[in-house]
Each structure stands twice: as C-alpha cells, then as structure tokens.
Amino acid sequence: MASSFTRLISKRNTAVLLAGLGAGTAGFLLSENSSLAAEAKKKLYPPSSDYPDLRKHNNCMASALTPAIYAKLRDKVTPNNWTLDQCIQTGVDNPGHPFIKTVGCVAGDEESYEVFAELFDLIIKDRHNGYDPRVMKHPTDLDASKITHGMFDENYVLSSRVRTGRSIRGLSLPPACSRAERREVERVVVTALAGLKGDLAGHYYSLGDMTEKEQQQLIDDHFLFDKPVSPLLTCAFMARDWPDARGIWHNNDKTFLIWVNEEDHTRVISMEKGGNMKRVFERFCNGLKQVEHLIQERGWEFMWNERLGYVLTCPSNLGTGLRAGVHVRLPKLSKDPRFSKILDNLRLQKRGTGGVDTAATGDTFDISNLDRLGKSEVELVQLLVDGVNYLIECEKRLEKGQEIKIPSPIVQFRK
Amino acid sequence: MTKNCHNDYKMKFSRDDEYPDLTQHNNHMAKVLSKEIYDKLRSKSTPSGFTVDDVIQTGVDNPGHPFIMTVGCVAGDEESYEVFKDLLDPIISDRHGGYKPTDKHKTDLNFENLKGGDDLDPNYVLSSRVRTGRSIKGFTLPPHNSRGERRAIQNLSIEALASLEGEFKGKYYPLDGMTDAEQEQLIADHFLFDKPVSPLLTCAGMARDWPDARGIWHNDNKTFLVWVNEEDHLRVISMQKGGNMKEVFRRFCVGLQKIEEIFKKHNHGFMWNEHLGYILTCPSNLGTGLRGGVHVKLPKLSTHAKFEEILTRLRLQKRGTGGVDTASVGGVFDISNADRLGSSEVDQVQLVVDGVKLMVEMEKKLEKGESIDGMIPAQK
Predict the structure, then answer these.
(1) What structural domains does chain A harbor?
(2) Which positions fall inside the Phosphagen kinase C-terminal domain (chain A) (predicted)?
(3) b/e string for B224-258 if b means 16 or more Cβ within 10 A?
(4) Were B252 and a residue from A96, B130, B265, B303 both cysteine, which residue would form a disulfide, CB within 3.0 to 4.6 Å?
(5) Strand partners, B173
(6) Per the CB < 8 Å rule, is A52 touching B147?
C-alpha cells in the first residue's frame, strides 16, 4: 500500500524538510503553468480587492491578518495547491464572540504552516502564550513513568481522560484532503490498529457501515462522533463527503479509542471511570508508541517537527495536541468567587460535562489543561494532576470550613 | 478563487480511490455520474479552476430524499456547462423533460404576448409574483467567486440599479450595513433574504464570506426587487398583492430589459446562449430561470383526490407559502410553473395564468358541492 504513495510523499517530505530547515519557505507561487485566465485575474483583482472585511471579527486570524500580510501570501500555494483563502475561510465566515476568541484559521496540509508562516506564526504566538515558532523548540515526552501523585480521590473525581491527535505525514489534512487521501488515512490507521494486542486489541467501526446495534452501543458508551454541525468546522470544509472513510476504533476493554477522519486524521483517546490518571496516561503513551511503530513498519510516519511538535489541523492543537482532564465534583469550590482565578493560575480550564461549549450540570465539571504547545505531554499531565489535586484539597478544606488560598500563577513564556 | 484546485495532485490517485460513494444517494448527479464519466472529467478544469469535484460536492454531501429529487450539482462559471457537458447534459435532460444537447431554447420577454392574466379572482388569488435569475458575464458564479469578484458584481449592480427611473426608481440596502429599522421593514415586506442554512447551498460554497457584498435593492413602490449575490449573481422579482399577473409580468419584462441594457453598456451583459438560455448556478434554473406563481386559496381542491394529477397536467407545481420545502397554511398554496428550459417566459407565465384560472373555477364548483370531473384538463 505504501509503495503507491512513497513516490508522492518522498517529494513532499523533502519540501517539508527543506522548509523546516528554513529553506524555500517562499512556497510555490502560482507559476508559469497557470492559465492565462488565472494570470489576468490576478491583475484584475489585486490583493486589496480580495482582502476580507474583518471589522466585526474577534478571532486570532482577524487580529493577525493585516492587508500587507494578505497581499504577500494571497498568491502563494502549498505543494498541494492549498491557498491562504482556504486557510482563513472559517475565520472569515465565523466572526466570533466577544468573550470567546476562536482561532479562525486551519491548515490544509503540513506545508501550510511553512508557506503561510507569516500568518500562522502570529496566530501561534497569540494562542499559545507567546510561543515563538521561529526561535523556540517544542519538547515531546511520552514517558508516563514520570508522573507522580496521579491517583485522584475518587470521592471527587468520577472519570479521567487524555486525548490528542495525530496526522499521517504525506496526506492532506481534513480541510483539504480528497476522498482518495481520506480513504488512505483510514486504510493506514486501521491496518496499524489491527496489529495491536493484549489489552489494546480492538475493533474498527466504519461510520457508514456500522449496524444499528453497533451504533446504539457506541452512543451508550459515549464513543460515537457525528457529522460536525459547528460552522467553525463546516466552513473549514471538514464535513465534505461525510461519512466516507470516517470511523471509530476502540479496544475491547473500551479504554482506548481512536476517531478516524473527524477534525484530524486521528484523535486518540485514553479514558477510564475513576481517578487513576496515571494509568490512563500510561495506556495513552503506550498505545501511541505502538501505533507509531506499526505505521512506521509500513513506511509511514506522524507529522511532527521541532518548531511545532505534532502537526494538526487547528493551530490551537499544535505541540502536544493534548487535553488531559477529569470529570470532578466541586460543589463548594465551584460556587466560590475565587474559582476562576484559581483555575487560571493553575493553567486549567473548565468545561461542562458535554465537552467544549457546554455548560456544567450540577456541580460536576470537566477540568483540563489549557496549554498545548511549549510544554511536553508529561509536563502538561503533571500540571493537570497537581492542579486537580489542589482543587480537591480546596474542596475538602471548604467542607471543613477552612480557608483556601489562590495559588501563585504558573510560569508562562509571557503574561 | 482557487477552490479545491489541487487537481494535478489528485490525478495521481486512481479513479476508484477518488470516485464518491453514491450508494445511499438519490439525486440527479448520483443517477448520472458513472465511474466512466467521472474518469473522463476528473482531469479537466474550467479556465477559472473549477473541477468536477467542485461541481458535485453538494450532491455528494447531500444524499437526498427518497421522494424529492434534488439536482446535486452546481456550475462554478459559464464554462462549467461546456467543460462538464458529459455530466451536465444528461442531468439537464433528466431534470428538464428530456431536453437534448441539440435543442434550442426560446427566450420571449415580450409581455404583450401574454393573453389575459389581469382577471384572476382576488377573492382567491392573494398575490402574484414572477422571479428569475441573471448571471453577469465575466464573473464566476456564487459557488466559486472570490470576494473581489463578488464585490465587483455588487458595485456594478448598484450602479446599474441606481440609474433606473420612474416606476423603477429605488434604493439598495447592503446586508451588512442596513439599520435595524431598515431590516425590520424588509422583513415585514417579505423582502429580506438571510444567510443560507440549507446544506444544499452551504455545501456548494455559496455562503462563503457572508454577508460581504450581499444586498437587496427594491423600487420605492415595493413591486420590483433584486437580490444581489445570494444563490445567483442577481435574482429579479416582480410582485404585488392580488391577481393581476399581467401587470406583474409587464413590470418584470420591462425592468429586466432596462437592467440588461445597462449591464451591456458596461461590457458585462448577462450569461445566455441559444442552447441553455440564461445561465444560472443551478442546472434546475437554466432556460428562463423563471418561476411565476401565485398564493391562492384552494382548501377544497387541494384535498381532492385528483389535485396532484391536475397540477401535473397543467405543468404546475405546489409549494407552501414559505416557499420551497415549506408546507401550506390554511389551504393557501403557492402555485407556480414547473418548467424552466425548453419553453419561453411567455409560455410559462401563460401556463400559470390559464392553470390558476381553471383551478379557481374548480374550487368554486367544489364549494357548490358540484363535481369537477368534466373539467380535468388534458396533459399540456
């Protein structure tokens, strides 16, 4: 299977390598091969005529995209012919919310982050606390044995979960991929997963082919993902050809789960009821390493580089792409006016138990790490572990009528 | 402009790997697009970069409904209908009653050729309306155009419409920039169009950059209305309360011709050819692009066993009063011509006028408890 693609990807890998070394970041200009019509059109429509109206917008793309940057990048294309307009379409179509700053921009392929670096680097800095991809390096560390105090008090923590994403190098990302590429992602991943054994052995359920019974079971297990309805995703072309080549794989124990071709090539999830975050993270790291090994055996690899860590569709998920979190009961602390500040300082985020953009039900919250890039997986999971332990400590103290303190803020690149 | 234009790269994958899964689908595109046709067309692209995958994306993403056959494809520019003939000609034939690639379409915007139409009973016919679309030569269509093109279309349209006088004197309201009061008024007048929510349109890329360069123009009398940059470059609507379809059609023809003259002077006439008539985004609107219709009270007739058959024979179509894909309210239906291509504007409006007149008479008969069996028309 890889042989029909190695010719393709070797050329692209070279481009990526060169770009990563700082060479050839000019990308590919719409070249001599362009039809006369395309050339004439460029003259008729200077970049200023195409510059989007972003006056009502509040997202990272709108903050960063000046007319000058747009003019410089508009006529560039990645080796796969992906353009700036395609990257920013979602941000143009979704002005955003005064309180929630979305990213407003996606990559169509690994090279997008190089060819359109002038825009993406600014967005990355904005979103990831000042991380500067031009000078900084992102650490990767998947050694779960380093985690300490990773067993939570189960009177408070109901479940523990770690997720990330992985992209297959040489194939375009969900906004840009053709049906053939998407099917190839599915083939590569499903073939690899079939090689997992022991507690990781499992089964793949294609979204288009699953039986009603299988579907119901996956819903009951809270594993099923559905066609995206959020315009943030649909305007980024990620729902095309649904449900072609989309599916869910999970191990027989239902503790390790992989989504194929949703918002990223793969989303990898390790989860369990209860508070054993250490074990969840161990399985996460172990599973990831095994999958990586299995795809490498067939000549494939994950998209990764030193500047950006793991490369994913949304710039917000660069680096580790890792969200480690718990469902935790905090009835007293959540009503304390200092709750938000405490979370802030611990670099934690709260969500409702339905995930992003949902409200909390009762006193149970989804608490997870805010950061993704600039710190390793181990660092982020440890931050989450220490943070949640702190929150539980606060809750216990409030139960006893004792005082609690706002912790000092954790060091960032900039404040 | 360059949407999904990585065709050369895609050509390295096999036809079978790229061919869409249409096994769950029921739309015109799915019926026609064999692997052979896909293979033939996948290497092509129009001068502006529109490819067969762009044409069919909406049909792939929207499998359709067992009862309602949607078209499932769009054009990105005038040349799409030529470059992708092998796909679009059979779809056009399927959708437009067997229209052949060699057929010629007749355009007739001479309102004087319409017989009658000024005497539909206003006790039954509540309002009359004729709409069509126009595409402006030299620009790509809504699924494909860039912001720069869309804005140029808007500017040209504003200039053209601003020069209209007399009964056509009016004002342009850009979607992004109207006041709350203006918006309220446009909603109350049933003029305002909103960002498309139908996935048939959004999957075809037509809602990109909303509401940039979209707007509504209408005359001071509120009887002539133009939508700019919605599903087509222009949608032109003539309407008024009551049953005087003749007057509605007169205003429609006169207004359209005035607008066309102005665009021609700017070297941007309307897209038209003698085979397909007026070129629009959706193949279903080729030819006249005309939907002439009325809101008419037919509580008894609409529940009659032969209602659907009567409509079919009269070459008419029913919709709810909210327009396409809505249900009727209180026995009031939107009745309009079913055809677009292969007959002229006059022909189509004549069918509406004659057909609605007959149906109102049937309604009256049914009110008196009499039978309408003797009135069932032959197939037109």
Answers:
(1) 47-128 (1.10.135.10), 151-400 (3.30.590.10)
(2) 156-398
(3) bbbbbbbbbbbbbbbbbeebbbbbbbbbbbbbbeb
(4) B130
(5) B216
(6) yes
Kindly report whether the peptide bond that precedes residue A79 is cis, defined as omega within 30 degrees of 0.
no
CB-CB under 8 Å, B49 with A179:
no
Candidates A81, A83, A185, A186: best to mutate against B (most CBs of B within 10 A) is: A81
Contact B103, B115 (CB under 8 A): no
Chain A: residues touching B (Cβ < 8 Å): 8, 30, 35-38, 41, 45, 49-53, 77, 79-83, 85-86, 89, 92-93, 172, 176, 178-181, 183-184, 208, 234-235, 239-242, 244
Q: Is B98 exposed, middle or buried (0-12, 13-18, 19+ CB in 10 A)?
A: exposed
CB pairs under 8 A between A and B: 91
Whether B259 contacts B160, CB under 8 Å: yes
Burial class (CB in 10 A: 0-12, 13-18, 19+), A228: middle
**Pick among A41, A48, A51, A227 to test the B interface (most B CBs inside 10 A):** A41
Nearest to A8 among B1, B12, B210 (CB): B12
Specify which residues B329 forms β-bridges with. B332
Q: Catalogue all structural domains in chain B, each as residue range(s) with its CATH number.
A: 5-96 (1.10.135.10), 111-368 (3.30.590.10)
Sign for the pseudo-dihedral over CA of B135, B140, B142, B146: negative
Note whether A45 contacts B17, CB cutoff 8 Å.
no
The answer to whether B57 faces chain A, any CB pair under 8 Å, is yes
Residues 6+ apart with CB under 8 A from A303: A110, A166, A167, A168, A169, A310, A311, A312
Half-sphere exposure at residue A211, Cβ-oriented, CA atoms within 13 angstroms = 3
Q: For every one of its 380 residues, what pLDDT tens digit does chain B have, with 9 covering 90 and above?
A: 344 456 778 888 999 999 999 999 999 999 999 999 999 999 999 999 999 999 999 999 999 988 889 999 999 999 999 999 999 999 999 999 999 999 999 999 999 999 999 999 999 999 999 999 999 999 999 999 999 999 999 999 999 999 999 999 999 999 998 999 999 999 888 888 989 999 999 999 999 999 999 999 999 999 999 999 999 999 999 999 999 999 999 999 999 999 999 999 999 999 999 999 999 999 999 999 999 999 999 999 999 999 999 999 999 999 987 666 677 778 999 999 999 999 999 999 999 999 999 999 999 999 999 999 999 999 99
CA-nearest of B367, B323, B320 to B131 is B323
* Interface list for B 195-234 with A (CB within 8 A): 202-203, 207-210, 212
Structure tokens at A280: 């969840």
The chain A residue lying nearest B49, using CA atoms, is A38
How far, in Å, CA of A240 to CA of A228, rounded? 10
**Interface ipTM:** 0.90
